[in-house]
Amino acid sequence: MTATAQNPLYGKIIRRIVPYLMLIYMVAFLDRVNISFAALTMNRDLGISETIYGFAAGVFFLSYCLFQVPANLLLARLGARRWLGTLMVLWGIDCMATAFVAGAPSYISARLLLGIAESGFYPGIIFYFTFWMPPSARTRILALFLLSLPLCNAIGSPISAHILLMDRALGLRGWQWLFLVEGAPAIFLGVATWFILTDTPQSATWLSPLEKAQLLHDIHAEQPAQPAGSGRVLFSVIRDSAVYFLWSSGNYGLIFFLPKILVARGASPLATGWWATLTFGIGALAMFAASRSRGFRLLPLLILVAGLGFAAVALIPSLSVALAGFSLAAAGLMASVPIFWSLSASRFSGKAAGAAIAVVNSVGAVGAFAGPYAMGWLRDATHTYAAGLWAIAACLALGAVLVSADARAAHSSRSQGDPIR
Backbone dihedral region of 15: left (phi > 0), alpha (psi from -120 to 50 degrees) or beta? Predict the structure, then answer.
């Protein structure tokens, strides 16, 4: 960690903005992935096959990826608090409305609309961090923020499993209660966001003029040395997009199918909620440990470790191996993501950073569609989850190969004092 990252100013910024952003991202992510538990009973009630389930889980990301670039441009124009707050209210309404879908067409439509509503949220926050941190401090803040992802799964999984026990309460099925209960917080927090977030450091009343000047100096001092349109940078963004596509295939394959695979191997739905807590709790610890890393050389190794976890689950069809393999996969996936985004977000500055981040995240969203859909289709075609698990393991192995040269070059540049970290 550099001297810049150790500046008390950045500790102050982290304490002020990160806890709330973590909370609202946990709500966002839960509303995105809670179908993994709803599907344990909803699929049967609505007559939804594994293929349709995988398609509906992934179709969210098709609309999600189409709207990310314009959404990030709107954030720059409207400000984070108004734009992110409005998006939260919209997807909260959509999530609650999903409780009343009547079959595959309305279910898929609700997922498409949810993707539109959430499209500007995650890339918008990554872009938002570029206002508040120079690249040398960004891995730390990204790692803390992205702890929301495994923590959401660790905390949300048992909550979702217990909500399913409300089956038949007031005439509603358990999966309907799940969407209603977990969609409501987004609406309340969306309104609160208008009053809690600060759009830019310049408008922050809790920073002194000296602190604002120091932050502006640090960010300008670490701007990328090469011009934003250079061939080298554009090639790196294309490679980043490919790596994130492969990473997302594995990440969402894990999230959407972990409950189903554990139940298929003998765990009860309630026990599965607690096993998921263990799995993603390990992922959270791995992410925190990786955030203390001093370089990018760990990135390909972490992605490869995640692939090995999927391969182990495919190779040995037992519940204990599934728990160990998925824990290994979660550790590799969660630990790699803040390092990846720190590397990717450092290539551009200003409004170009918002567009570049959105492009990378949009391509990753296609992978988030492809992974679950392939898992569902291969399950119906082969009557086993092994083929889908092997496919994801192969995707992650390829991702590790693609990122290896770039990670070594970035680590070398950082060691030599290059401002791109």
Answer: alpha
Q: What is the pLDDT of residues 54-95, one digit of tens each?
A: 888 888 888 887 777 777 777 777 878 888 899 999 999 999
HSE-CB for 360 with a 13 A CA cutoff: 32
Token readout for 251 is 């990440």
- Return the amino acid letter for 342: S
Single out the residue of 303, 260, 296, 258 nearest to residue 395, CA to CA: 303
C-alpha 305/C-alpha 143 separation (Å) is: 19
Widest Cα–Cα separation across the chain:
65
Amino acid, single-letter form, for residue 132: W
DSSP 198-215: -S-GGG-TTS-HHHHHHH
Q: How far is CA 150 from CA 140, 251, 305, 317, 362, in A?
A: 16, 11, 17, 25, 21
Q: Which two tokens mark 115?
A: 């993707």
Other Cβ atoms less than 10 A from the Cβ of 200: the count is 12
Alpha-carbon distance 111 to 360, whole Å? 21
CA-based torsion, 123, 343, 147, 387: positive or negative: positive
Helices (H) and strands (E) in the chain, counts: 17, 0
HSE at residue 201, side-chain half, CA atoms within 13 A, is 24
Compute how many other C-beta atoms are within 10 angstroms of the C-beta atom of residue 206: 11
Tens digit of each residue's pLDDT (9 = 90 or more) over 241-255: 899 999 999 988 898
- Tokens in use for 258? 């972990």
Alpha-carbon gap, residue 60 to 64, rounded angstroms:
6
User: What residue type is assigned to position 163 of the chain?
Assistant: I
Q: Please give the C-alpha separations between residue 81 and each of 87, 123, 302, in angstroms, as whole numbers.
A: 10, 14, 34
Write the pLDDT tens digit of every residue in 315-343: 998 999 999 999 999 999 988 888 887 77
- Which of 251, 250, 235 minimizes the C-alpha distance to 356? 235
Report how far residue 264's alpha carbon sits from residue 319's, in angstroms, rounded to the nearest whole number: 9
Q: What is the DSSP letter of 223?
A: S
